[in-house]
Amino acid sequence: TFAEFKAAGGTISGTVNTDKAGTYTVTYHLNGFEDSATVTVLENETSVAAQNVTLYAGDTWSEKDSFKHATDKTGAELTFTEFKAAGGTITQTVETEQAGVYDITFELNAVSDKATVTVLLNQTNVKGENVSLYEGEAWTEEDSFKRATDKTGAELTFAEFEAAGGNVTHEVDTSKPGVYTVTYELNGVTDTAVVTVFVDQTRVSAINSTLYSGESWTEAASFQLATDKTGTELTFAEFKAAGGTISGTVNTDKAGTYTVTY
């Protein structure tokens, strides 16, 4: 054995520097006999490169995202999977839910590289606002949208909110009185608003009038009563101020039957 060879007075000449590529000769001597061997030290072409990554709290991240490239001892390029299969190791303490700067180190064959993972504060914010209307009135999702900001804290219009991936869920039916919930969501942040649809209590009542030609008549004379959407009684002046209209003409100088619609 090698141990017995040395115990019997065997000697070895020649040196090998394993840190330096080259061809080295080693000679073994015993009792006047010798033999030589060649030790070839190849260049170790292992390389590892990591890359810095910036994300926002709550974003998805994996170790692969910070891996740029690697080569093995022969210089062959390695995928992330091959890097790990070749014995590559990774040390990191990244917490994607907490803002901060984290180190991650990739190592293969004693060659290493370090990168940082910067987790920024997620400033996403969404705010809805309650809306009340009467049945039959127009309503859009934008009407209950108050404000939103993206991850960077930039203010978003409703169109920008939608373009950024914002979602709106609701079952609002303005033709049916009721209380409806509208939920706005962006980047996992949500807010809820209420849309209340009231019964439309608008009512208009006219009365028939009879007069003789030449007598005076006004539109107010055939107006009996009206209520607005809230059910509040309106005078004729209030009826007109509220947008009430009157169609039809009456010629009091000519006998006949005329229709007036309020």
Automatic annotation (TrEMBL):
It comes from Brochothrix campestris FSL F6-1037. This is Cell wall anchor domain-containing protein. Residues 7-41, 54-119, 133-197, 208-262 form the Ig-like domain. InterPro entries: Ig-like_bact, Ig-like_fold. Pfam families: Big_3. It comes from the Bacteria.
